[in-house]
Amino acid sequence: MLLTAALLLIMPPEHKLGHVIKAVYIHAALVQTGLLIFSAAALFGVFYLFNDRAKWLTITAALQKTGVVTWSLYAVSSMVVTRLAWGVWVAWDEPRVRSSAMIWAAVLLFFILARWVGNARFTAVANILLAAVSWWLTKTAGMVRHPLNPIADSKSLLLKLFFVLIFALTVLMAIQLTRLFLQTRKP
Q1: Total of domains in the chain
Q2: Residue 8's Cα: distance from chain center in Å?
Q3: pTM reported for the whole predicted model
Q4: Domain range for residue 53?
Q5: Of 41, 84, 139, 164, which is least packed with CB atoms within 10 Å of its CB?
């Protein structure tokens, strides 16, 4: 986390967004990390369904918890970026904002239902469904103000490098959080 903060401090501003780009990088890294976590949770859910080893259930449940934390942080970062870039906290007219809110609702719903039902197979299936819903909502969301991929479209190799580093650190933090959840061993 300190390395991420140091990178954000030293990274240069972008020509259109200025220093707001730093918040955008956290926002983009969290959304990509969240989608990867949902995918990994789904993968281990599939492993559990085809080979009901407790290990696979423990991993898919830990990833589910990490997904809740990551997407919640993403939601907060999204509000900050929206405020800094567009002047409002939540831009409901933006399809990507609505799809992200629907994903967050699905994340919380599946997490709560998995805990309430308390069934291993349900948890595995919930994680598979969440990954499918998340990717579908992300890929089908239109755009009004939100650029398609401002980081990839940037001409600055330095800004792209900073994003790759911040994304890698975000993924590493998610892995560490998952390891922490695994240590508690409570699916």
Answers
A1: 1
A2: 19
A3: 0.90
A4: 20-184
A5: 139
